[in-house]
Amino acid sequence: MRAATRRAQIVGPAGRIELAIDLPAAAPRGVALVAHPHPLHGGTLDNKVVQTLARAFAALGYVALRPNFRGVGASGGRYDEGQGEVDDLNAVWDHARREYGAARPVLAGFSFGAAMQARLAARVPPERMALVGIAVNHFDAPAVPANTLLIHGERDQTVPLEAVLDWARPLELPVIVVPGSDHFFHGRLPLLRGIVEYNWR
Fold first, then answer.
1. Considering 139, 182, 183, 185, which has the largest number of Cβ atoms within 10 A of its Cβ?
2. pLDDT tens, 42-87?
């Protein structure tokens, strides 16, 4: 059964934060917070990879929240070079914890959003993480937990696979490589969703 999606707005540190919320079909097992790509390069909560991640987590039984970062859509404020964006994610988690009673979040993200989630994990210990196309060649990303699911496209020209391997190597993190995939997983979104769902059960 496909999850229901609704829109909401909450108060954040730079004004309102617009959210899409994907609800599971049954009682939720937790909360997944899903972060979108770079706000200055067309990244929004409606990005196809972000939607795919949110729907995968809803299918796995999580309430999946997709915020628009500051300055995107109906969210207030302006781009803050990755500093305020982590504050926004933290505000969404605070809201979700109050609203849904979750103890720890699942943190997921794509590209810029994945790097921001790595930063948030230094503040908010997650249940687990799923990072797709993490933009380690553009943004500093701290170490993440050993059970992090790391997925990358073989032919990613925005974030070369080699850069992600260099980041993951000292952390001893396995990287799941999607053969033939570009940065945006064109034609590979069902496979991406399947990887997340298979590796989460």
1. 185
2. 999 999 999 999 999 999 999 999 999 999 999 999 999 999 999 9
Q: What does the buried/exposed string (b/e) look like for 157-180 if buried means 16 or more CB atoms within 10 Å of the residue's CB?
A: ebbbbebbeebbeeeebebebbee
Smallest CA-to-CA distance from 39 within 79, 76, 84, 9 is with 79
Q: Can you tell me the distance from the alpha carbon of 117 to that of 23, in angstroms, rounded to the nearest whole number? A: 21
SS3 content of the chain, % helix, strand, coil (to 5): 30, 25, 45
- pTM of the model as a whole: 0.96
Handedness of CA 111, 113, 119, 122 (dihedral sign): negative
Cβ partners under 8 Å of residue 108, min gap 6 = 32, 33, 34, 35, 53, 57, 114, 117, 129, 130, 131, 132
Does 4-200 carry CATH code 3.40.50.1980?
no
Quick one: DSSP state of residue 24?
P
